[in-house]
Structures are given as C-alpha cells and as structure tokens.
Amino acid sequence: MDEQGEPIVDILEHIWASTAVATEDLGEAAWSTPSDLPGWTVKDCLSHVATTESSLLGEPVDDVPVDHLAHVVTPFQQMMEVGVEAWRPVGGAEVRDRFLDISARRLVQLRAMAPDEWEVVGWSPLGQVPYRQFMEVRAFDCWMHEQDIRRVLGRPGDLDGPAIGPVLERFRAALGFVVGKNAQAPQGSRVRIRTTGPTEVDLGVVVDGRARVVEPSELGGPPDTTITLPFVAFVALGGGRWDRSRAEAAGGVGYEGDAELGQRILDHLAFTP
Description:
By secondary structure, the chain is α+β, with helices and mostly antiparallel strands. The chain has 2 domains: 7-153, Four Helix Bundle (Hemerythrin (Met), subunit A); 164-267, SCP2 sterol-binding domain (Nonspecific Lipid-transfer Protein, Chain A, 2-Layer Sandwich), CATH 3.30.1050. The chain contains 10 helices and 7 strands. A 5-stranded mixed sheet has the order 5-4-3-6-7.
C-alpha cells in the first residue's frame, strides 16, 4: 500500500505500468491504429491519459482549436480533445516517453500528499467530490483507455488484478440507472448479468420502485432475464465502445428468459460520457 495509506495510488501505478507494457515497441503504423473511440487512434488514447495527468501536475496544455473535428460534438468532448489535438503532430514513441515521464512525476506528487489533501472537495467528471474519489475516477478512465489500446492492437491483458476493483465500482454505480431508466425494465423485473473470464462478474438488478443492484442471491426469485457475456464485451459496451451487434458478433453473448429485455439492456449499457 502507498505510504500515506491510499491504495488508489498503487492502483494507478499498476495501470500506468501496464499501459507502458501494452505500448512497448510500436511502430508508427501501430500508433495510428484507429481505436473504438471515434476519431482517436492508439496514440490519441495515450495522449489523452498523459495530457490529463500533466494538467493535474499543474502544467498548461496548449490551447488549440478543435471545432474542425467532426467527432467532437459536446462541450465535454471539446475539453477532452484539446490535449489530444495538441499532441497529434508528435510521434508515437515520443508520446510514450512523455507519458512515462508524466506518470512517474504524478506518482511522486500523489505520494507526497498529506492525508487531509485527499479529503479536499473539487471538480471531477462526477461533479464536486473529494480528491480521493476523483482519483478513483482517474483509475477507471486510465484503465479503460489501456483496454482501448490493448483491444485494437490484439495485446490483451490487465483484465483482472488490482485495477478491477475501482472499475467494477463504476459499473455497479451505473447499472441500476442503466436497467431501470435507460432500458426501461418493467416494475418488478429481476435481472442477472454474468461475465465470463478472465474476470467473472455476477450481478443482480431488482426494479422495485427504483432499480438497485443486489447480489444474485437477493433477487427474490428467478431472474426475468439472465445475460451472459465475456468481460471484454461487458467493458466495451459499458464504455460505449461497442454496440450490442458488435458484442454479439464477437461471440459469447447469451440470454436466458426474456431475450428482448436482455437485448434492450445491452443496447443501453453505455454509461460513460
């Protein structure tokens, strides 16, 4: 554990080290591989992680226009795109070197923080939250982009281990809204979602007034629909990287019970901005 007792620092260190491994020895053609995110290549995904952490070090990001980019359509996307666009003229190997330098300095910064600094409330993509919670969001974001890189390069990895805790917390926090609000599961519905390796998740959702996530043993009866899918597809769907048809085409997706409800839930599983 980190000296200050903040396990999220060790998790970030793990994710950044794993991302470095995922991007070792890439040629420029590989760096230019399109990711599952519109308009972003492998290099752009790493640039985004690096420039975000650079800003958290207090370093300025070049203010470049992004309104000419067709894939940038929301204010949040505009904010996220500036650092990526500023680094587009930089070669992939240099982007990786910058990422290694920035992530190392961020770890020093994080480990030097006093306990009360972790409690300071400030901006995050979730709104005003304590800095500790913001860093949990950063771990989720960094890991998702590591997976964006690994998926399209055919370099699978880091699909279990220390990063999965904060990742699944974000999924659990969103799943009730996804099932009850977005997918419009009827009142009284019981839903079970299971993933197959390397991380096996088994979650229940009960729609009883307000949809809530429960253990499968707490569903109160047999599920109306059980969705089974690979963990890779679960992540790609939740992150808005894939749609249901792509997940089904990749294989391993199955439904028991009300297949239409199960399909509707996967159609609405995306919860990231």
